[in-house]
């Protein structure tokens, strides 16, 4: 059997990689015609998609670094790992709230300077510590209001944690899932608009994907709605915030701080910005969780054609029927596709043992287990059906 070649474009946790049986998979950075790409934040937009490619797996949540639509049109699923790094981000958001509320970043700089630059020690150091501390006096979290925009895997954890720290929590998500709604603390108040959330929050935190609809979500008009002295936390993506508008509001004193995970040239050196080097998912635990989930989903797809957690195709999982050959077929979501596919199978004299088809947006995916030999001519016949994008024969 030819091995599946998997190219890794970022450091992926060995806890995940070791789940790939090396008798079945070749794994490395230097693979020329990969069947699959396994990555974190590497930018795939500028990379030519190799014709050999069957799948892309993102060990993480955000897929804005991947040409998801272009790959869907080629019948290439893009997997991600929903929730696998959510706790790591939640903890950093809580840390970010405290950094801003207690002015910790500047306070630590102040004490370092007393020793490193001013060379103070002993009683002189104690004196300056006590004299300087008043400029860093902050505020406490209980009683303050946190607005959470995006109540998915991360937003729900942040909302619940903030609630248990004594904050009043407002949430906004126009497409909240049933799963999120079940997990969300009943004390979190859902508001009807971003505007309402902004005008009632002392701090806001963003947990939406970067897509066309969320680019520049926090802009000058919306910043103006926030109360004087409020804080913006952005652990989603840089592009969700119009940073120039936020910097202006920091300069005018309207905003107190901007804590984010996506440094820009202007932001990184601004005195009221705390810019971290994209650390949200950088814990051993999150890296292991994401790698395990990405690897398991990817190998299940390569070996069995099952699709779980693809952002561009529906969830299609079917147990293998012993003694059959499996076909995985991607097609446009339009009428009479199933009829034409099953007609082609019947013409070839093949009996269908199991069949499942699901659609998501513009595309659909079929898994079918057939009894008898699947000849190349049948695959060609299926590929010739108008609207079929890709067909793959998966041996048992
Ligand atoms: N800083 C970091 O290292 C990390 C950043 N992220 C970022 O966080 C994002 C969210 O991650 P998850 O919570 O795991 O994703 P998720 O898919 O579970 O949740 C996203 C939520 O945003 C909602 N949403 C979409 N558009 C919206 C809008 N216009 N207004 C309000 N809500 C909207 C969706 O309905 C969904 O409930 C990722 O897409 C990624 O960009 C994720 C992990 C680590
Ligand atoms: O999962 C995400 O969306 C992240 O932003 C984490 O990115 P990373 O895997 O740390 O490069």
UniProtKB/TrEMBL annotation:
Transmembrane segment boundaries: none
Residue ranges of every copy of the ACT domain listed in the record: 326-396
One Pfam family, short name: 2-Hacid_dh_C
Enzyme Commission code(s) on record: 1.1.1.399, 1.1.1.95
Record has NAD as a keyword: yes
CDD domains: ACT_3PGDH, PGDH_like_3
PROSITE patterns the record matches: ACT, D_2_HYDROXYACID_DH_1, D_2_HYDROXYACID_DH_3
Pathway: Amino-acid biosynthesis; L-serine biosynthesis; L-serine from 3-phospho-D-glycerate: step 1/3
Keywords, in A-Z order: NAD, Oxidoreductase
Catalysed reactions listed for this entry: (R)-2-hydroxyglutarate + NAD(+) = 2-oxoglutarate + NADH + H(+); (2R)-3-phosphoglycerate + NAD(+) = 3-phosphooxypyruvate + NADH + H(+)
Record-linked InterPro entries: ACT-like_dom_sf, ACT_dom, D-isomer_2_OHA_DH_cat_dom, D-isomer_DH_CS, D-isomer_DH_CS1, D-isomer_DH_NAD-bd, NAD(P)-bd_dom_sf
Annotated function: Catalyzes the reversible oxidation of 3-phospho-D-glycerate to 3-phosphonooxypyruvate, the first step of the phosphorylated L-serine biosynthesis pathway. Also catalyzes the reversible oxidation of 2-hydroxyglutarate to 2-oxoglutarate.
PANTHER family registered for this protein in UniProt: FORMATE DEHYDROGENASE 1 (PTHR42938), HYDROXYPYRUVATE REDUCTASE (PTHR42938:SF47)
Protein family membership: Belongs to the D-isomer specific 2-hydroxyacid dehydrogenase family.
Protein name: D-3-phosphoglycerate dehydrogenase
Native species: Ornithinimicrobium pekingense
């Amino acid at each position: 059997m030819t091995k599946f070649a998997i190219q890794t474009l970022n450091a992926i946790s060995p806890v995940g990689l070791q789940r790939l049986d090396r008798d079945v998979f070749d794994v490395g950075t230097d693979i020329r015609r990969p069947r699959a790409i396994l990555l974190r934040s590497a930018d795939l937009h500028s990379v030519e998609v190799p014709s050999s490619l069957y799948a892309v797996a993102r060990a993480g949540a955000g897929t804005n670094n991947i040409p998801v639509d272009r790959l869907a049109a080629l019948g290439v699923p893009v997997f991600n790992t929903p929730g696998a790094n959510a706790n790591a981000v939640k903890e950093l958001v809580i840390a970010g709230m405290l950094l801003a509320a207690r002015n910790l970043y500047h306070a630590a700089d102040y004490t370092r300077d007393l020793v490193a630059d001013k060379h103070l020690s002993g009683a002189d150091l104690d004196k300056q510590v006590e004299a300087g501390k008043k400029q860093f006096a902050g505020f406490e979290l209980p009683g303050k209001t946190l607005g959470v925009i995006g109540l998915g895997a991360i937003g729900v954890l942040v909302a619940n944690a903030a609630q248990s720290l004594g904050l009043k929590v407002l949430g906004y998500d126009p497409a909240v899932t049933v799963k999120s709604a079940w997990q969300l603390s009943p004390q979190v108040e859902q508001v009807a608009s971003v505007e309402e959330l902004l005008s009632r929050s002392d701090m806001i935190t963003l947990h939406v994907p970067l897509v066309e609809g969320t680019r520049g979500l926090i802009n000058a008009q919306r910043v103006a709605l926030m109360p004087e002295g409020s804080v913006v936390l952005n652990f989603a993506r840089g592009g969700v915030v119009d940073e120039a508008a936020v910097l202006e509001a920091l300069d005018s004193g309207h905003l107190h701080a901007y804590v984010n995970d996506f440094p820009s040239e202007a932001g990184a050196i601004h005195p009221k910005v705390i810019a971290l080097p994209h650390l949200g998912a950088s814990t051993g635990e999150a890296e292991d969780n994401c790698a395990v989930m990405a690897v398991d989903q990817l190998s299940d797809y390569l070996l069995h054609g099952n699709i779980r957690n693809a952002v561009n195709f529906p969830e299609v999982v079917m147990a293998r029927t012993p003694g059959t050959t499996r076909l995985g077929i991607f097609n446009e979501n339009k009428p009479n596709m199933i009829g034409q596919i099953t007609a082609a199978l019947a013409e070839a004299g093949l009996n269908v043992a199991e069949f499942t088809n699901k659609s998501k947006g513009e595309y659909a995916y079929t898994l079918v287990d057939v009894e008898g030999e699947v000849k190349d001519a049948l695959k060609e016949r299926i590929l010739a059906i108008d609207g079929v994008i890709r067909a793959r024969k998966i041996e048992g």
